[in-house]
Amino acid sequence: MLTNSESASRVSVIIPTLNAGPELEELLEWLQRQTVPPCEIIIIDSASEDGTQERARKAGVRLMSVERSDFDHGGTRNQAAIQAHGDILLFMTQDALPYDGKLIENLIKPLIQEETIVYSYARQLPRTGANVLEQLARQYNYPAQSQVKAYEDIEQMGIKTFFCSNVCSAIKRETFEAMGRFQQPVIFNEDLFMAAKCILTGYKVAYSADAVVFHSHDYSIRQQFKRYFDNGISMRCNSWITPYSAVGKAGSKLVKLQLQELHQSRQWHLVPKLVAESAAKLVGYKLGMNFRRLPAFITRKLSMHRLILTHIENMNSPGATMKQ
Fold first, then answer.
1. Coil/strand/helix, residue 238
2. How far apart, in whole angstroms, are the C-alpha atoms of residue 108 and residue 118?
3. C-alpha torsion sign, points 142, 182, 8, 214
4. 239-266, pLDDT tens digit by residue?
5. CA 20 from centroid of its chain's CA atoms
6. Which candidate, 24, 8, 30, 213, places its Cα nearest to that of 122?
């Protein structure tokens, strides 16, 4: 069992922000009244224009700034991590909200209790009003049962062994540094790549179902296409992980689950949307995997993260798309 004195000085919370809105205040309030309070909360903001930085200052948290054009999912988090004081780094996104006051306690518990567990991530529940397909996706990816994943699970689980989410995750700082920090520049999946490096090195990653946040999206079909296009780019730029990839298999399981639920609940009107979303994801991913064959102007048009893509395009070789 963790005690406040054992853990309060250990955890640095890092949150990248961009126009986070008034919801940031609620997130910071929840973090500041945890049973295991963090030693610091670091907001690293990308030139917000909606008062995000003012809200951070009002809450008394540490504030760092980066130019919007310099934002990178890996590099920006690395920049904040370098300045952090804790020996556990807890990463969150601005649109996640703790379910209760035990989020940090439950998230870091596996890291404290077992030496070989170095990275953990939280369960995500859909926000109120989330559509049915999004609810089922969260249910599939974030079940009620906790799990510890290790190298031995790769044969059965494939790339799902490495699944992790920086929506809410925690990693031992010593391991974070030993693994070379997050890859940069990276357009997508910096959390998955870190988990993969940890597991392939012999460490374990924990899914802590008792650590819970509210988090969901209502992406349009166009946005789903762009998101999976970027997912494909990230995989192509990290060919070392493709031997473990089973995206199509994992995706088909989710689609089957969604179809079964729509059938049982007689929500036939959502089947066309499911088919369209699934097609958009598959086509987007396949195109992303082949982005180097596309003209640069088309690639930028299809990407959800054009500025990060520019950083990747500016690298001289495919192997230079990640910094370790």
1. coil
2. 9
3. negative
4. 899 888 754 466 678 888 889 888 888 8
5. 17
6. 213
Look up the CATH number of domain 4-214: 3.90.550.10
Strands 204-214 and 88-92: unpaired
Most distant CA pair in the chain: distance in Å?
Answer: 56
Distance CA 119, CA 205 (A): 5
Separation between Cα atoms, residue 173 and residue 10, nearest integer Å: 10
Domain ranges of the chain: 4-214, 221-317
Confidence of residue 73 (pLDDT cuts 50, 70, 90): very high
Report residue 105 CA to chain centroid gap: 20
Whether residue 185 has a cis bond before it, omega within 30° of 0:
yes
List, for residues 153-180, the tens digit of each pLDDT value: 999 999 999 999 999 999 999 999 999 9
DSSP 8-state symbol, 127: P
pTM over 0.85: yes
| Residue 258 near residue 136, CB atoms below 8 Å | yes
Give the whole-angstrom CA distance, residue 173 versus residue 183. 15
Angle between helix 132-141 and 271-289 (nearest 10): 60
SS3 labels along 268-282 = HHHHHHHHHHHHHHH
Burial of 291 (0-12, 13-18, 19+ CB in 10 A): buried
